[in-house]
Amino acid sequence: MHGGPAKVSVFSSALLGTVSGSSVANVVADGVFNIPLMKRLGYHPRFAAAAEAATSVGGQIMPPVMGAAAFVMAEFLGVPYLTVVQAAVVPALLYFVSLFFVIHFEARRLDLRGLRREELPDLRRTVLRKWYLVVPLLVMVLYLVRGFSPARAAFMAIALAAAVHLITCALEGRLREYPRDLWGMLEYGARNALTVALACAVVGIIIGVVTLTGIGNAIVTVTATLGQHNLFLTLVLAMVACTIIGSGIPTTATYIILAALAVPAIEALLPAKGPEIAPGVTVSQIAGHLFIFYYGVIADLTPPDALAAYAAAGIARTPPFPVSLEATRHALAAILVPFAFVYSRELLLLSGSWADRAVAVASALAGIVFLSAAVAGYFFGPAHPAERVLLAASAVAMVMHQPWLDAAGLVAAALVAAAQLTRRRGIGQGTKRSLAAPRPRP
Questions:
Q1: Which helix (H) or strand (E) is 110 found in, with range?
Q2: Mean pLDDT throughout 239-259?
Q3: C-alpha distances in Å from residue 367, one per residue of 52, 183, 410, 416
Q4: What is the DSSP letter of 19?
Q5: Beta-carbon count within 10 A of 321 CB
Q6: Radius of gyration (Cα) for the chain, nearest Å?
Q7: 253-277: per-residue pLDDT in tens?
Q8: Could you tell me how far CA 411 lies from the centroid of its own chain?
Q9: Residue 382's beta-bridge partner residues?
Q10: Residue 36 to residue 410: CA distance in whole angstroms
Q11: Prediction pTM value
């Protein structure tokens, strides 16, 4: 397929994100395979590193194991962690769909090919040999779905992972290395737990300071004043704040700070609070908190402190700052996703009928595809600047999710598609005529 290795990074990062919840861990784990493969096939190192970084960042928003901030969110709102997972499923899928189509259109524009069929591994044989590696993940998801605490589900998954690794070492004749591997795993987990423990320890201090000093109300007032009671402008201001703060501190700390400062301003401007999903907790509150969480995650891509992009650049052996800019461009379509579930809260699967949810998902998918084409500059063919602007406008209209805006967005995208197909058909016919024309005599 066009862009095959880069598309593989979308799936591998999504699957790895279900268990890691870390952008840098995703880059290091599968970037060492995907980035060299893309470079070997002729992809530019910057493109390879940017594609890996953009997809790896999604690991923090991919259920069932999201970033540490998702667990803090559940405690902050006083809702079961499974509720946060349910709300995050569709936005996470939209994030990875947007990256898939950006890579697809970019690969079509640059004519980036994948591996030859004879180079591909045997999928059936690989699955039959390594099927047991998925058991810890399945058990963890089962425990979460059955209503057990995240701590218990994680403990069972860790115990099973240690057992599975023992089986792997036995099959590969590396039993002597098992104690060292187990100790390294425990040490790595303890080091990463320190960050989460510190964030959870200071969350009460931050909330207390914000409440007692009145700075929270002041920031809400300033944000609402700057936004002039406009929800879209307020969301843009919150997005900028997340990007700036998230560039200097980890995602969990970014979420804790802005959940206390920016979320109340967003909630105050939402047209309808929505049904309660827990005592005192509405769908609008979940949407506001997820909005802050998503942009705190995407800050791992944006300069100057783009951790995921810097890790990918190190593997690709290319300057990190251009990789950060390229990765941010790849994620432009994904940046639209939080706006989508704020305006269409049916995407969180917590309110509305199933018919309303299906329509909202279809509208958001169409908008994501249109914006991906605008970012890459390719839809059914190379896009002119005016066509890219029209596709971007179509995407925004679809995300606003009003019947007349959806219709206008579809019509505009259809016009662009018709123009490109007509142009491509004319080029193809011109090529055929030139090939069929008799050659002039010397």
A1: helix 81-110
A2: 73
A3: 23, 47, 9, 14
A4: T
A5: 13
A6: 24
A7: 778 777 777 777 777 666 555 566 6
A8: 28
A9: 378
A10: 39
A11: 0.76
